[in-house]
Each structure stands twice: as structure tokens, then as C-alpha cells.
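ok new one. same drill as before - C-alpha cells go in, u give me an amino acid for every spot. 396 of them this time. try not to just spam alanines like last time pls lmao
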């Protein structure tokens, strides 16, 4: 790949903000960040734009009608192209069925990138507490067993990097021991654990929490529940959805006052219906509704994943909660990269790292998404051209 330069009015580098400077890309990497361009090369002039590191979404099920829970590689690539339009450069495709994990693994192992790069598989289950099934209630889930966990690892062909389990289920401790031996990171999620049970789950090896504040035992005045245990443990990372649907704004403010922002990881938990027009759709065996506001629910009003995306949540935190921009950027990029030990080459704008860049206008809308030096999305592409034509709106 030839060397090329991008000029920005503002660069959110790993440790500082640099104004009116060039980012030089070469062979898919960031080779230099400098003020002057003293040699001839292709120049991309974004003097009216800012650049931040590409978003790494570690919890995403789908986008624009495409699902990561699919055995069809074309659909999986449709998903990665669609999610790149929301500013994501790296994603942990979230699925837990054996056949779909195998299909996603094949895409990863092909080394073919279309849109965002799939960095690994996250399995949100199947070991969930019956009381906290969320939108997957009614489906049959296997009980915890090492034998089934082995099947998951085999199906994922070395690509299963992350799994959420209910740490209070019978038999889960042996399963967690096995998963840790396979170097798979464990989140607690969809759990009825009380305060002490959650603390035990941390000792057993859970180091993060799946969509914190959702599908878990709430705070009670006589038992802090799993939420309090998570907030008071300085070592636990919390996935957080900031769409103002999954968690009320004032509750987010409370969480951020109690726990350091360095231990939150922004996630979308996006459904395949994220970014879809209002209507009624049939997805993953159930009818699901996209509301006027873009939220996704079942007929009984159960939330069914998020209809938004991480950049939307970042804008909420920056413009409505007034959190420091650099902190919010780290929550979306460097902190997920650090959690998965890939921060040596992902997660920030720094010389030597992969050229994963998100170019934004002044209102933080996506102008261009760059993955390892290649354009994954440009805003000259109509968003409706990225929507899955097979996802039919039953009210249209």
C-alpha cells in the first residue's frame, strides 16, 4: 500500500489532542503524526473534520437488518459493512449457537475484511439464569456443563474470545475453570446473583459484566445485589449501554459518580434491527417492533437489544452528560482493546498502531470509517443501500 496523508483540524491522539496536523498511513498502519507535509504523497484533506480512533464494539448482535447470528457468510459480511457505517472498526460478533459461531469463525479465519473487522466471537450465553432471560425467553437453553462448553470452543475454531454466564448457576464453576483454561474472558450476565454470590463469581474468574444494569438482580436496601458488588469492585469492567433506554440518564450519572470511568466499556448490544425504519419485523423466531424513536421491543414491551449504536451513546455522554471527550473516546476504543490485550495495535491513534480511524464532522456524524488503512464506509454511500433487503417491514 502506498503512503498517504490525512489532514485534520483536530486529532484525538492517545494522550493528547493535536490541531491542524497530518496522520500518515502506510501498509495499514499509522506511520507518523506531524504538522508539516514535506514529501509528495496522496493527500486526503479533512481540514473541516476531526478524527478519533475507530470504535471497538465488544457486544453487538447485528445492524441494519443483518444478524451476526447467521450461518450465511453473505449476511455476516452485510452486518460488518453496516456496522462500519456507525463508526465501528472492530467488533466482537455476538452469537452463541454452535452453527452460527462456526460460520462467524469461518469469516474471521478467511482474513477477508468487508467493513468492520470481526476481532472475535462473544457468546452471550447460553448459560443464563431462567429469571433473567431477557428477549430470549421461551427459547430452550442448555444447562451449564463442561461438555457443552467444549462443543462451543470446538465450533468457534479458536475464535471464541468472550462469554457471558450467570455465575450463580449450578455447575457453572467447573465450566468457568475450563473456559479460563482456553483463555476466554468471562463476563457475568443474565444473572440472579446477590451481593455475596456476585463477589464469589469474581473470585471464580468473571472480570466484566454484560450490559451492566440490565438482566441482573437490582439493588435492595437489605442486599446490595449484583449491581452494588460490581460498582464497589475496583477491578471489574462494566459493559454499559448509554442509549437512555436501557438505563435512565440519572442512573448513568449515579454509576459514573461511584465507579471510575476507566472501568466502563461502551457497547451497543445492537440488534439486527438497529438503525431500521419504524415497523414490525420477524427476526430470530419472533416478531419484534421498531418504535418511532428507534427502540426495539417485543409485544409485551420487553427490550430486545438496542436500536442504537456506540457513537450515538458517545454523543449522549459528551453532549448531554458532559463527560470529558477523551474519557468517552477511551471507553469506546482503548478500554475494550486493553480488556482483550490487543491495545498494542488497536484502540487509539498512535504511531505504529493499526490505521483504524473514525472521521467525524462537528456534530459527531460519521464522515468516513477506515479499517487498517482501507475505507470501510464513506458518507457518500446512502445508508439505505446498506439495509438488508430481505428484512421485510410487516407494516410497510
Amino acid at each position: 500500500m502506498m503512503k498517504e496523508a490525512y489532514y485534520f483540524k483536530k486529532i484525538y491522539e492517545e494522550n493528547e489532542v493535536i490541531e491542524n496536523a497530518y496522520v500518515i498511513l502506510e501498509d495499514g498502519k499509522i506511520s507518523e503524526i506531524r504538522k508539516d507535509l514535506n514529501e509528495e504523497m496522496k493527500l486526503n484533506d479533512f481540514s473541516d473534520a476531526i478524527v478519533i480512533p475507530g470504535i471497538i464494539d465488544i457486544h453487538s448482535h447485528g445492524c441494519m437488518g443483518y444478524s451476526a447470528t447467521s450461518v450465511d457468510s453473505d449476511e455476516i459480511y452485510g452486518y460488518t459493512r453496516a456496522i462500519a457505517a456507525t463508526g465501528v472498526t472492530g467488533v466482537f460478533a455476538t452469537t452463541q449457537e454452535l452453527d452460527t459461531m462456526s460460520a462467524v469463525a469461518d469469516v474471521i479465519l478467511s482474513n477477508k475484511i468487508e467493513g468492520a473487522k470481526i476481532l472475535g466471537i462473544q457468546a452471550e450465553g447460553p448459560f443464563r439464569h431462567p429469571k433473567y432471560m431477557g428477549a430470549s425467553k421461551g427459547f430452550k437453553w442448555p444447562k451449564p456443563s463442561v461438555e457443552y462448553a467444549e462443543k462451543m470452543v470446538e465450533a468457534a475454531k479458536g475464535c471464541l474470545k468472550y462469554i457471558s454466564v450467570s455465575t450463580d448457576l449450578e455447575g457453572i464453576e467447573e465450566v468457568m475453570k475450563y473456559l479460563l483454561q482456553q483463555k476466554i474472558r468471562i463476563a457475568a450476565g443474565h444473572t440472579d446473583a446477590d451481593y455475596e454470590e456476585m463477589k464469589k463469581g469474581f473470585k471464580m474468574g468473571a472480570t466484566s459484566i454484560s450490559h451492566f444494569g440490565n438482566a441482573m438482580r437490582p439493588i435492595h436496601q437489605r442486599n446490595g445485589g449484583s449491581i452494588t458488588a460490581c460498582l464497589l469492585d475496583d477491578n471489574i469492567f462494566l459493559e454499559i449501554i448509554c442509549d437512555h433506554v436501557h438505563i435512565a440518564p440519572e442512573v448513568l450519572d449515579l454509576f459514573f459518580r461511584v465507579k471510575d470511568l476507566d472501568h466502563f466499556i461502551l457497547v451497543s448490544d445492537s440488534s439486527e434491527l438497529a438503525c431500521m425504519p419504524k415497523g414490525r419485523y420477524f427476526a430470530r423466531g419472533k416478531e419484534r417492533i421498531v418504535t418511532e424513536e428507534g427502540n426495539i421491543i417485543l409485544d409485551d414491551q420487553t427490550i430486545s437489544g438496542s436500536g442504537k449504536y456506540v457513537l450515538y451513546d458517545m454523543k449522549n455522554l459528551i453532549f448531554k452528560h458532559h463527560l470529558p471527550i477523551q474519557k468517552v473516546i477511551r471507553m469506546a476504543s482503548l478500554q475494550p482493546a486493553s480488556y482483550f490485550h490487543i491495545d498494542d495495535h488497536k484502540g487509539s491513534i498512535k504511531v505504529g498502531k493499526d490505521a483504524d480511524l473514525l472521521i467525524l464532522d462537528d456534530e459527531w456524524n460519521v464522515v468516513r470509517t477506515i479499517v487498517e488503512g482501507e475505507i470501510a464506509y464513506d458518507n457518500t454511500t446512502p445508508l439505505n443501500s446498506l439495509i438488508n433487503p430481505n428484512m421485510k417491514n410487516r407494516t410497510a
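The chain has two domains: 4-52+351-385, 53-339. and btw Residues 152 and 329 are 33 Å apart (CA to CA).
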